[in-house]
Amino acid sequence: MRTALFAAATTLALSMPALADDIAANQGHAVSLGGVNGSVYYTETAGEFEVVATLSAEDSQRPIRTRANLRDGQSMTVEVPGQANSEAEFVTIKRSGDTLSIAKKPDLRASLIAE
Asked: Where is the secretion signal located (predicted)?
């Protein structure tokens, strides 16, 4: 069962277009997740990328901020739950070597490892 699940997830991941945007250090990148908008940027410190995401709902005056230190190969996901009868929206932020990419698709690797 696990092998079939892995094969299906791999096939799905390979069939999806690469929708990632690469961003440079100290450069902001706008994100929009349904009714939540914000920006993501990172700085490089001691071999890690300190990623900062600041988001605010359209009907809120108070933003939220999250930070993560990513090493090579690590990723983080920011998710906004969907309203009734709609799916959640998310953005995955991933470090690969000296590149940080932002994509509106899940990190399927993480969901397979968790099981």
From this structure: 1-20
